[in-house]
Amino acid sequence: MPESRPKRPRASRDAIAKISQELERALSRKRLVADPDLLENYATDESCAGSYVPQIAVRPKTTEDVEKSIAIAVRNGVPVVPRGGGTGRAGGCLAVEGGMVLAMEGMNRIISLDKSSFTATVQPGVVTGALHEAVEAEGMFYPPDPSSLDSCQIGGNVATNASGPRNPKYGPTRDQLLGLEVVLATGERLRLGGRALKGVAGYDLVSLFCGSEGTLGVITEVTLRLLPRPRHVETALLFFPGADLASRAVVAIMQAGHSPRALEMMDHVALEAIRPKALFRFPEGNQSSLILELDGNDKDALFASLASIGEQAESSLGASLVLVARDESQRRDIWASRRLLSPAIKERWGQKYAEDIAVPLSEVPRIVERVHQRAAEQELETAIFGHAGDGSLHVNILFQDQSAWPSVMRAAEAIFRDTVELGGTITSEHGIGILKRPYLALEQTPPLIALQRQMKRLFDPRDLMNPGKIFP
Ligand SMILES: Cc1cc2nc3c(=O)[nH]c(=O)nc-3n(C[C@H](O)[C@H](O)[C@H](O)COP(=O)(O)OP(=O)(O)OC[C@H]3O[C@@H](n4cnc5c(N)ncnc54)[C@H](O)[C@@H]3O)c2cc1C
User: Fold this and answer.
1) Cys staple from 388: which of 166, 265, 307, 455, with CB 3.0 to 4.6 Å?
2) Architecture of the domain spanning 110-228
């Protein structure tokens, strides 16, 4: 069995009062949040993991603020929980053992956009969408586009290795990550990687931090690789009578050698949920759809590829309708509608347990079939959508009241088991956080989990950096 550790009791009132005084002396007073009403703002994220009010919070402006805050917390044995935009889906930024939240929103400076070497260096609290705008204004391109990009932060994206619809062609945050500055619980400030596009000096600690969910240290600066902005983008919607045909079409399109930058699936439950809210008018009566998007510099070649995929979809993949976005504004409406999906499903159904599984591409149709089967076994409904072009799917198990929770958990575990059996992963982009801790052992062996615990101990000997996360 994997090792486990007892949950640490919350720090005493006296300990918090003491660190509060020390923080007031070390930092500007306005960096400190001690008012219980304001601390509530940091109690939840966008998961269904519950509410954990931290005992104190700091809003650093500089790396020095982070260093001082960590030193004071660790000296007093108080946990430190880094928090970005709070859009996480796994409870990763929640203070499950109390302690101090480091809310990074104030570290939101774009330090440099270097057009000569195509790099950006930013503070971690920069909102992802704001980085997109700044980069695109300079004729460059930062591909990772999580659907939460209006409120998630680059630091949170690195800590969860976030990705988005453009993943099939450009990959996740890790693929753009060149360098990091981090502060460890031991008080050390380290620079990992740099601005060069490659490097093999020592172990790849940049990648280790990417996806580490704030458990190894606090990210205080991020250097990213940028690309030239593609001159043309073409977007189409392919509709299918069912999710089975749509999922088979995903495999066929990718296997035919096309390289769409996005290939997003939405099943009929997802489409029903966004239809009333969508800026784009999705036709009634079609059951599942794919958003297909291609980019490049040769407009004619792009259009030819789009037409060829559309023809293939209609002639041999069972598509009932193919629509091509007329112009940029229609394209934007499609994506704005897609971004409404998650809240729209929640609004319509009351509650949902959101999984972010991924399987090898060829297994997409099989996992869609299994999800339906597992949900039916528990008499539950699901909404399936997601970045299917890279094999990842958001499986939302829908329910209305807490009495359904045991069935939801049974369905979720069965789906995780199926996913792993098909060669996939229980989390493609949201991370383990607290929600998926019980399931990590379905995917990883006890020695592998034990090795990772030992690695954490090297960075954080007292287990004070975002404790209670990831490991079972
Ligand atoms: C509507 C919606 C759509 C979404 N769509 C996508 C999607 O398409 N793709 C995707 O990948 N995710 C998606 N997500 C999930 C979420 O937005 C991502 O996981 C995102 O990367 C979290 O960033 P955040 O800044 O909100 O981090 P938070 O939620 O605040 O924190 C997430 C984790 O990162 C750690 N962390 C945050 N900042 C730092 C830091 N500076 N240093 C160290 N650790 C840190 C936290 O401790 C925590 O473990 C979606 C969420 C919502 C609500």
Assistant:
1) 265
2) 2-Layer Sandwich (3.30)
